[in-house]
Design a protein that fits this description.
- The chain has about 350 residues and is an alpha/beta fold.
- It has 2 domains: about 110 residues, 3-Layer(aba) Sandwich (Rossmann fold), CATH 3.40.50; about 200 residues, Dihydrodipicolinate Reductase, domain 2, CATH 3.30.360.
- Helices cover about 35% and strands about 25% of the residues.
- It has 10 helices and 16 strands.
- The strands form 3 sheets. It has a 9-stranded mixed sheet with strand order 15-14-13-12-6-11-10-7-16. A 5-stranded parallel sheet has the order 2-1-3-4-5, with helices on both faces. It has a two-stranded antiparallel ribbon with strand order 8-9.
- Strand 3, helix 4 and strand 4 form a beta-alpha-beta unit.
- Helix 7 crosses helix 10.
- The chain starts with a strand and ends in a 5-residue tail after the last strand.
- Bound molecules: nicotinamide-adenine-dinucleotide.
Length: about 350
């Protein structure tokens, strides 16, 4: 049984409590933004409070770290784990720049440490089934991927969060925060390699009110459409928006069209895949129920544990995948600034 330390007790952090408890491993400690918040959550979940993330990571009583902090802390926490050789399960985006993510990947070249970035859609049963369908050739060669990831929680200018705060230096929001899930999933299931990208973005709510009452100019994008050309000649078009009324929570869907068939999957109806056939009615396929025994929300975390036990990264995205997403984000930003297509020249 591994002793797991969880850092950052916000929305995703609390979700991970459940995953850790159900994994059969021990929640051995938590660290929040202050000693006080660590104690509050430690009392709630009957575990040890750490004074700071640094104390938790360096504790000999912690074998594995889950990093659920806001993005500006990802680099420091992840690097400290890599330095100590502690397996690290990190939230996305892996870092805020390729300067940060390349340093992590370079560190892994010197010392192997199991490393996962939480692109969790990869573990969903439907996503696993879509991947198998594409690998089996059922769709033929892929011609087009169209995807959307929409939310409405940032519709009003009075909504404030660290993601919009220019002081935190998030260069990209719609793409880095939600779009990267859609891109990672699309590349994972199709196995396609991006050749070039074009990005159009907009800050639709240009001023937001801080809790202090001060109005702040927002720099990062609420909306973006990323077009992608793949090396096999296929095309991709992906739209992300955090101010789309009525798209409560996370509303992601993707349609993949091949030379034989297509398919459509919407995360909200996660157990259904719509098969699109030439000149024919759609066919609704229910996701293979047996996949729910082996895959699902826990799949990525299980892959991480298997990796620590000597297996492979399995369904999980690694830091190299996370580095690639940040590379694509930077390329997209260059495209948006220059209004030009940018070639992918990723060297790892
Ligand atoms: N994979 C996913 O599906 C998914 C979903 C949501 C969020 N996320 C990612 O998870 C991360 C956190 O997002 P969130 O929505 O939970 O944010 P959040 O603001 O709800 O939670 C972040 C938590 O970190 C705490 N924190 C701040 N500074 C800290 C410090 N120095 N030490 C320890 N804790 C500290 C905050 O108090 C807060 O409780 C982000 O990187 C985000 O991109 C991923």
């Amino acid at each position: 049984m591994y002793r797991i330390g969880l850092i950052g007790m916000g929305i995703i952090g609390q979700r991970y409590i459940d995953i850790v408890l159900k994994s059969g491993h021990q929640l051995a400690g938590v660290a929040g933004s202050s000693a006080h918040s660590s104690t509050v959550y430690a009392d709630l979940y009957d575990t040890k409070p750490f004074q700071s993330w640094n104390e938790l990571v360096n504790s000999p009583a912690i074998d594995i770290v889950i990093n659920n902090t806001p993005n500006h802390l990802h680099f420091d926490v992840n690097m400290e784990c890599l330095k100590l050789g502690k397996p690290i399960y990190a939230e996305k985006p892996l870092g805020r720049s390729t300067q940060e993510t390349r340093a992590m990947v370079d560190s892994l070249k010197k010392k192997h440490v199991p490393n996962v970035v939480n692109y969790n859609r990869r573990g969903f049963p439907a996503v696993q089934q879509i991947k198998s369908m594409i690998e089996s050739g059922e769709l033929g060669d892929i011609l087009l991927i169209r995807g959307n990831y929409l939310q409405d929680w940032l519709l009003f200018p009075q909504t404030w969060n660290w993601r919009v705060d220019p002081a935190n230096g998030e260069v990209s929001r719609a793409l880095a925060d939600i779009g990267s899930h859609l891109i990672d999933m699309s590349l994972f299931v199709t196995g396609l390699t991006p050749r070039s990208v074009f990005y159009e973005k907009q800050t639709l709510i240009p001023m937001r009110k801080k809790p202090s009452g001060e109005w702040i100019k927002i720099e990062n994008e609420d909306y973006g459409t990323l077009m992608m050309r793949f090396t096999n000649g296929a095309q991709g078009v992906f739209t992300f928006c955090q101010t789309s009324a009525g798209h409560i929570g996370s509303d992601m869907w993707v349609e993949i069209s091949g030379t034989r068939k297509g398919l459509l999957w919407r995360e909200r109806e996660e157990d259904k895949i719509i098969l699109k056939k030439y000149n024919d009615e759609d066919e609704v396929i229910l996701v293979d129920p047996s996949l729910y025994n082996t895959h699902g929300q826990f799949e990525v975390f299980k892959s991480f544990i298997d990796w620590i036990d000597g297996g492979t990264s399995g369904a999980a995205a690694t830091f190299t995948d996370g580095h690639f997403q940040v590379y694509l984000m930077e390329l997209a930003m260059q495209s948006a600034e220059t209004g030009t297509w940018q070639d992918v020249k990723f060297k790892g």
